[in-house]
């Protein structure tokens, strides 16, 4: 580090504000280094992705949409609800996964997914119940 330069003085702190749907609006703070020249600070924050992965089963990614004063307004970008498939998995069967992107009238994009398993026929002599690719 150069002499007589304090890196912490070159950083601006911003409050991260969640959408109004959530109970807690202030979810944290972030910093951005002050740019040199003609660059704008808010451009450096727009599109910034925040990740919250404290809960093991659900992971959230939030993206900065707008900067108003010292507040970063964010929206949901990605949610992963990883469920524990291990108790459901059995030998001799197929796990079927499907997903689709759905765009609503107001412009939001939702990812819907479904997981299913093949079931063994009750009075069958076959030990396996695999699904074919065409089904």
UniProtKB/TrEMBL annotation:
PANTHER family: 40S RIBOSOMAL PROTEIN S3A (PTHR11830). This is Uncharacterized protein. It comes from Cervus elaphus hippelaphus. One of its GO terms (cellular component) is ribosome. One of its GO terms (molecular function) is structural constituent of ribosome. The keyword Nucleotidyltransferase does not apply. Keywords: Cytoplasm, Ribonucleoprotein, Ribosomal protein. GO terms for biological process: translation. InterPro entries: Ribosomal_eS1. Pfam families: Ribosomal_S3Ae. It comes from the Eukaryota.
């Amino acid at each position: 580090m150069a002499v007589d330069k304090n890196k912490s003085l070159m950083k601006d702190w911003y409050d991260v504000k969640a959408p109004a749907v959530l109970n807690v609006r202030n979810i944290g703070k972030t910093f951005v280094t002050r740019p040199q020249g003609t660059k704008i600070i808010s451009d450096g924050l727009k599109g910034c992705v925040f990740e919250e992965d404290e809960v093991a089963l659900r992971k959230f990614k939030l993206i900065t949409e707008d900067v108003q004063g010292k507040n970063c307004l964010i929206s949901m970008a990605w949610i992963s609800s990883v469920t524990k498939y291990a108790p459901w998995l059995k030998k001799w069967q197929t796990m079927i996964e499907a997903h689709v992107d759905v765009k609503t009238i107001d412009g939001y994009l939702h990812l819907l997914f479904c997981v299913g398993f093949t079931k063994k026929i009750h009075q069958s002599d076959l030990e396996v119940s695999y699904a074919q690719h065409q089904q």
